[in-house]
Amino acid sequence: MSTPADLWHFARPDLASRYLQAFDLGLVSARGLFARRRMGKSEFLKHDLLPAAEAAGYAAAYTNLWDDTDHPGQAIAAAILSAVQPKGLARFWDDLSTPVRKMKAGAKLPMGVEGSVELDLADKEKLAVPAIQAALQLTDKSRKRLVLVLDEAQVLANPEHRQVAHSLRAGLDIRKAGIKVLFAGSSEAALREMFSRASAPFYNWAPVEPFPLLGDEFVVAIVAHIKRLAKQPLPLAVAQQAFRKLKETPEFFRWYVERYLLYQEQGPEAALAHTLTRVHDDTGYAKTWKELGRPDRAVLLLAAAGVQDLYGAAALKQLRELLGTEDVTPSLPRTSLRRLTGPRMQAMARVDHGVYRFEDQEFEAWVRSRRTVD
Ligand SMILES: Nc1ncnc2c1ncn2[C@@H]1O[C@H](COP(=O)(O)OP(=O)(O)OP(=O)(O)O)[C@@H](O)[C@H]1O
Ligand SMILES: [Mg+2]
User: Fold this and answer.
1) Burial class, 264, CB count within 10 angstroms (exposed 0-12 / middle 13-18 / buried 19+)
2) Whose CA is nearest to atom 4 of ligand 1?
3) Interstrand relation of 348-352 and 355-358 (parallel, antiparallel or unpaired)
4) SS3 state of residue 187
5) Cα–Cα distance, 144 to 85 (Å, whole number)
6) What pLDDT digit, counting tens, does each position of 107-132 carry?
7) E strand map for 124-205
8) From CA 144, how far away is CA 203, in angstroms rounded?
9) Which of 246, 282, 296, 333 is the most buried (most CB within 10 A)?
10) Which CATH architecture has domain 13-109+119-210?
11) What is the C-alpha to C-alpha distance for residues 110 and 225, in angstroms, rounded to an integer?
12) In the prediction, which pLDDT does 58 show?
């Protein structure tokens, strides 16, 4: 079923029903799936799986934890809630937060306008644990089973979100029959880690498998669509070759098609050349690198080289060498990593004290191939 919003959406009903069937049969109640960035995970989950789940009588909840990496608990609670009880989200938070407000008043916190907004979000995240529990309890009352999709689920592996992750797992554990969960992510390593570390909240909870990628049938469908719209149809073989050149990445292929349609008189070769340049600029690791300060680059180099304890004495010594100065204290990697893991950059994710990993493995490889901070 294609969404009216995007006429170019290539629907994948068979894949959606395969996931649902596995859930229906009770073979699994949770799955983890990964694919590189821009390969069509979110598009499938939102525009194929969710509608299919709803058509099959499930309530369906989706949230992308990258939208707000600091507050995954709220996002999950809100997603569940709006799936099982679409009205009354504000009321729900109000009810939950009443005791906290009282407590705050009692403690006489100095609150400026700005401060209160900040506190509000932080408070909500504190409330995330009871909120998740309350939302899950509501699903017990619902007659429908729930499909819960957590996109970029590796955010939950961040130690900061341990409590949320533990409470979510506990709540899901006792509801395996009624709630089916799909964890999706763009980093295979991160996702595997989430389910394979013995100390992790979701240890052994879901099998992790590759997300089936879009292939030739996608290209064929798009070419057929072009034929209906364009003066100059795009030969299938030409499109197939472009798809390969674009590393079989649906998003890049869509850019190519868009360019082709706008400048048909220039022909498909020009469209491909233009798209390749755009891909290069857009994934522009060199550009990112240029925008970073030397300390950040040095920290990235160590992380890419596999250094485990980025705050440790050995790491500091290497940082001094890379930066050519003795003036390196533990606050240097700490400050850098705060920037690199922050919502603006999202280059790294914290795994454990001093241990970080790259969000984008291709960027990691790119950094690794460099030798110096310059
Ligand atoms: N089924 C599809 N039909 C048509 N276009 C698609 C389809 N899947 C993906 N695309 C194109 O690829 C783009 C990227 O897809 P999507 O955002 O789903 O990737 P992703 O795997 O979730 O990537 P990320 O890890 O970066 O979030 C879409 O915006 C769309 O242009
Ligand atoms: Mg996505």
Assistant:
1) middle
2) 9
3) antiparallel
4) coil
5) 11
6) 333 433 333 444 465 666 778 888 89
7) 146-151, 179-185
8) 27
9) 333
10) 3-Layer(aba) Sandwich (3.40)
11) 60
12) 96
The DSSP H or E segment spanning 141 is helix 128-141
In DSSP notation, 287-337 reads HHHHHS-HHHHHHHHHHHTT-S-TTSHHHHHHHHHHHT-S---THHHHHHH
User: Whose CA is closest to 210, among 193, 187, 179, 194?
Assistant: 187
Mutational test site, ligand 1, from 8, 39, 282, max ligand atoms within 8 Å of CB: 39
CA dihedral 351, 352, 356, 361 (to 10 degrees): -20
For residue 35 and ligand 1, the question of a CB distance below 6 A is answered with: yes
pLDDT value, residue 90: 67
Mean pLDDT of the chain: 87
- Give distance in angstroms: CA of 43 to centre of ligand 2: 7
- What are the structure tokens assigned to 117, written together? 């907004």
Place of tokens 């901070």: 373
d(CA 5, CA 9): 9
Instruction: Answer yes or no: is the C-beta of 9 below 6 A from any ligand 1 atom.
Output: yes
Give the H or E element holding residue 119: helix 113-126
- Beta strands per DSSP E along the chain: 30-34, 59-64, 146-151, 179-185, 208-210, 348-352, 355-358
The finding on whether 37 has its CB within 6 A of some atom of ligand 1 is: yes
What's the pLDDT tens digit per position in 332-343?
Answer: 999 999 999 887
Evaluate: CB of 46 within 6 angstroms of ligand 1. no
Instruction: Please give the average per-residue pLDDT across 6-12, as a whole number.
Output: 93
Class of the domain covering 292-368? mainly alpha
Phi and psi, residue 4, nearest 5°:
-60, -25
Residue 157, pLDDT score: 86
What are the sequence ranges of the domains in the chain? Answer: 13-109+119-210, 216-282, 292-368
